[in-house]
Amino acid sequence: MEFRLIGKDIRKSFGRLLVFDSINFELINGSSLAIAGKNGSGKSTLVKIIAGLLSPSSGEVIYQVDGREIDKLDWFKFVGFVAPYLQLYDEFTGYENLEILAKIRGLKSYEAKIKNVLERVNLYSRRDDLVRGYSSGMKQRLKYACALLHDPIVLILDEPTSNLDSEGVEMVWAIAEEQKKNGILIVATNEPEELKMCDEVINLDELKLKMKRQIVK
Amino acid sequence: MLSSIWAIFLKDLKSEIRTRYALNALLMFVVVTISMILFATAGEVMSGELLSGLLWVVIFFSAMSGLSRTFVSEEDRGTVIFLQLATRPSVVYFGKLLFNLVLIFGINFFVVIAYLLTMENFKVKSFDVFLSALILGGLGLASASTIIAAIIAKANTKGTLYPVLSFPVLLPLLITTINMTQLSIEGAKLAETFGHLRILFSYFVVVVIASYLLFDYIWKE
């Protein structure tokens, strides 16, 4: 299956505030894209647009499978998303959160899959604890488990290693490497080290500088 | 799709049982409101017509205090993205609608039992008419409240906005259900209330279809 993720002239503004303009990219299976920039540069806004959580002010994001465009309502089937602002249900256990997600997604025989992802993020022994009692690092690991549950083609990581210990950081790098084998990896970060996870980089600060220069000219 | 709707309903039900986010407030509201009516009317003999109206006042405000929570709690806790990334917007809408339907029928059941036990003059002569009003009124109340809850969940002034926005939308429904409840006390036959039944059923169908069409735009920014 050939998957293509295309961003065409993406522009986003909130009222009069222009966040970014003219973002273009094209990603296929095996490719990866890092989105860099300072705080407030619009990294999270851009990844939300790519995931379909926000609409761009102009331009478009296109998902294609074997040349056929995917309806925006079905993007969720292809996307795994990890971000600090993604919250889980803290009145449920880690296992229950994954079970709920699997049922909502309509996944078949999900028990083995849940066990697999929980082991992958090293949370299997704490699966029956309420998320309320998890540390911030454990919650971040559970977000990875949620994102990987349906084997997404596009894995989007916003600040991928926030709250994680060194072992957790290694886990993220392993997940990123695995994702790049067959899928698409998108990482939004302001850590120079994390930019190395990806083959291509969009720097939103440089883009803004370029836009300003064009205006001056 | 049906299994996903059911999964969202079960998630909300389980969450409600564990957190009592809406249930406690609802039950307290019903108890307090009925007590207030009893204190305010102590010694007065109230007509069946007046009691019919008061019954729906209790149901309306109880619904206002509880039905918004399905969406407001997701927004407050920041779990909206979890759902947005898991399924289609329409699945979320129908899952939440199902939960609100169960909640409103639970409220109706509790209010009616409390009402029948405490209001001496509230004597229903046509139970089929009364039940039809409760069921169709509940369907309409839940369907309109669900979509309004989805809208106000994005606003800053959720608490005050909900009854203000709901009242004009629910007014035709409330007038019809109050009329039907009065007819049930007067002993009218079900055949005599077909006009009311048609209005209530049409209201439910129109609101659900309009909500289904609009929900995509409300759910995602």
From TrEMBL, chain A:
Any one GO molecular-function label of the UniProt entry: ATP hydrolysis activity
Pfam families: ABC_tran
Residue intervals of the ABC transporter domain: 5-215
Keyword Protein biosynthesis listed: no
Top-level taxon in the UniProt lineage: Bacteria
InterPro entries per UniProt: AAA+_ATPase, ABC_transporter-like_ATP-bd, ABC_Transporter_VariousFunc, P-loop_NTPase
Transmembrane segments: none
Keywords: ATP-binding, Nucleotide-binding, Transport
PANTHER family according to UniProt: ABC TRANSPORTER ATP-BINDING PROTEIN ALBC-RELATED (PTHR42939:SF1)
Name of the protein: Heme exporter protein A
Origin organism lineage: Bacteria, Pseudomonadati, Candidatus Kryptoniota, Candidatus Kryptonium
UniProtKB/TrEMBL annotation, chain B:
InterPro entries: Cyt_c_biogenesis_CcmB
Topology of the protein relative to the lipid bilayer: Multi-pass membrane protein
Superkingdom: Bacteria
Membership in a protein family: Belongs to the CcmB/CycW/HelB family.
Keywords linked to the UniProt accession: Cytochrome c-type biogenesis, Membrane, Transmembrane, Transmembrane helix, Transport
A Pfam short name: CcmB
Cellular localization per UniProt: Membrane
Any one annotated GO CC term: plasma membrane
An MF annotation (GO) of this entry: heme transmembrane transporter activity
Transmembrane residue ranges: 21-42, 54-72, 93-117, 129-153, 160-180, 200-219
Broad class of the protein's primary localization: membrane
Gene Ontology biological process: cytochrome c biosynthetic process; cytochrome complex assembly
Record protein name field: Heme exporter protein B
